[in-house]
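Sat 14:20. Reprocessing the chain from the morning session after the first attempt stalled halfway. Input below, unchanged.
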Amino acid sequence: MSAPKSLDALRREIDAIDDSIHDLLIGRMKVVEKVRDFKRDYKVKIKPHREAEILYRLISRHQGPFPKRELVRMWRELIVATLTIEGPFSVAVYLDEGEEGYWDLARDQYGSFTPMSAQGSVRRVIDAVRSQKATVGILPLPRRDDDDPWWRHLVTESDDAPRIIARLPFAGPGNDRGTDLGALVICPVAQEPTNRDHSFLAIETDDEIGLGRLGSALTHAGLPPAFTAAWHEGRASDPWLYLAEVGVFAVKDDRRAARFLDRLGKPVKRLVWLGGFAAPLTADELA
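Finished this time. C-alpha cells:
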C-alpha cells in the first residue's frame, strides 16, 4: 500500500494541473484569433445563443464538488475576454439613483474589466447602443405599471435597431446589491435559437384589445405568453402598444404569427419582433 502523498506533493500536482489549464487557455485563444478573422466584417461580434449553448453544455457535463455558479462565472470572464480580442466591447448600464444592482448584474455577465458606463435614464442606454457607443445595454425588466416603458423605443423594423438578446442573471442571483433584481440586455443582433428560448413581440393597434384577449390569442396560436404589458399615450386618437414575452423561439414571418393575428380578430397596424433570450439556468441545474 503506497504512503499518502505529502502536502507539498499535492501542491505540486495542483501546479501541474494549473499549467495544463493555462496551456489549454493559450491554445483556445489561438483558435479565437482565427474566429476573429471570420468575423472581421461583422459590425457586432457578440453571439448570445452561442454563449448560452457553451454554458448549457458545460453545466450538463459537470461532475464533482466544484460549484456550478463559480464555473459559469469563470466561463463568462473567458467568453468576454474573447469578445474583447475580436473587437471593441463595452456596456451601458441603467443606474437609477439608489439602485446599483443593475451594475452588479452587468459585471457578472460581461466581466470584471469590461468598460462600463452608468446611464441615468433608459433612453440614454438605448441611444448608446443604437449609436454603438456601447456594444450592449442593461435595462430593467418590463413592468405593467411603467408609465413610459423603454421597450416602446425598440418598436421599429430597422435592421440595425437594438434588440433584446439576454436575460440576467443567467446563473441565478449572486451577491448583487438588489433583491430579486432582473434585467434584459439589448444589442443590434438577431435572435438565434437554442431550444430553450423566449421571444418578444410588440403589437400596435388603433383600439384597445386588453391583455386578456391578447394572452388568449397568443396561447391559441402556439405562442404561450410569459408576460404581457400595454402602453397608451392617453389621447383617444393615439395608438395602443402591447408587449408580449412568449415562452418559445419565434421570429419574423413565423407561421404562428398569422394564427395569432387571425385569432386576435382586431386590425393590427404593426407586429414587430423585438428579439429574445436563451433561458437562464435553473436552480436545479445549478444545484
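Residues 7-38 form the longest helix (32 residues).
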